[in-house]
Q: What sequence folds into this?
């Protein structure tokens, strides 16, 4: 899903010669919130809105934040994954990327799609779900009964994804792009 979104972002920005301001998504499931008798309708609505807060990456520019969230002055946005500190500094927990990082991301997506396509065409179709932060995608997967992945069976192995600092992830992506170009 994230790959589809990012591919779309890449296509649109090239077609329109535009610069990405962010790539955001949220869960379409209708949230069910528990509430106490004392809570006002406004408070309940606030809780529900919180469930719809978007995840993703936003361009590291406070002006862009405020174009996306008109009510954001300081503190955490209720809509996008960013916060603004005093003096309009970007909060440390904000999920942001610079213009250059978005360019890296766009190139890396294209590289990833090419790599996957080559693998499929060369017959590499092994079942290898990711394992990251003790999480696996199989838990809620609809295709479990078809793929029959079972870690306890011989030859079934996870693709272990290490938890790396963000800076390291950006560096690795940039390195791989350069390597592909033979730089
Ligand atoms: S159950 Fe199978 S298809 Fe689904 S995520 Fe796991 S390995 Fe992939």
A:
């Amino acid at each position: 899903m994230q790959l589809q979104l990012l591919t779309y972002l890449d296509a649109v920005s090239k077609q329109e010669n535009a610069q990405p301001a962010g790539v955001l998504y949220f869960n379409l499931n209708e949230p069910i919130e528990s509430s106490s008798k004392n809570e006002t309708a406004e408070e309940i609505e606030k809780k529900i809105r919180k469930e719809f807060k978007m995840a993703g990456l936003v361009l590291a520019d406070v002006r862009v934040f405020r174009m996306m969230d008109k009510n954001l002055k300081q503190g955490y946005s209720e809509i996008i994954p960013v916060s603004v500190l005093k003096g309009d500094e970007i909060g440390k927990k904000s999920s942001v990327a610079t213009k250059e990082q978005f360019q890296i991301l766009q190139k890396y997506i294209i590289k990833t799609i090419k790599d996957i396509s080559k693998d499929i065409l060369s017959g590499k179709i092994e079942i290898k779900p990711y394992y990251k932060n003790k999480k696996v995608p199989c838990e809620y997967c609809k295709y479990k009964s078809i793929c029959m992945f079972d870690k306890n069976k011989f030859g079934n192995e996870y693709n272990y994804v290490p938890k790396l600092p963000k800076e390291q992830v950006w560096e690795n992506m940039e390195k791989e792009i350069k390597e592909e170009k033979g730089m």
